[in-house]
Amino acid sequence: MFVTTEEGIQHIGVKQNSEYIVGTCQSYGGSYLVQTNGSVLGCCGQFYFYPKLKDKIPNLFEKSLEECKKISDELYLNNPIFIDYCKQCSLYVVNNKDYLERKFIFNGYFAMQYSSSTKYFVIPEALRQIPDDVLLFMYEKGFVSEIKRFIQDKG
Does the pTM of the predicted model rise above 0.70? Predict the structure, then answer.
């Protein structure tokens, strides 16, 4: 997980990652993210270092989706800033042999700790007052997904 502080961006939950090999992350490119300003990101981790690459990030309002994906992929494979963040990213997954060790609640996040990394998911505001053990049970049983859908449909 990336945490932004006055000192810059820090990485929490990253165990000793496998040696980073450019172009091997399974978290990249599975589904591209489009921000409200039209910027196209190849992964959610890219959001945290977006300001450092802002002038190079493709924009859907200026180019086709295919062109944006191609530019994003080019950054992912060749840009030193992008590559440096990928080397430390808690979402870096190189294969399907990464096994789940445990699930837990941590500072407003639901976390899934794998053998090589930990992935963090923001707990919805409406559920943050629930005790951690009950909340973890709800995540494990899929109740949180149902509640999130209910809240979205209601609003």
Answer: no
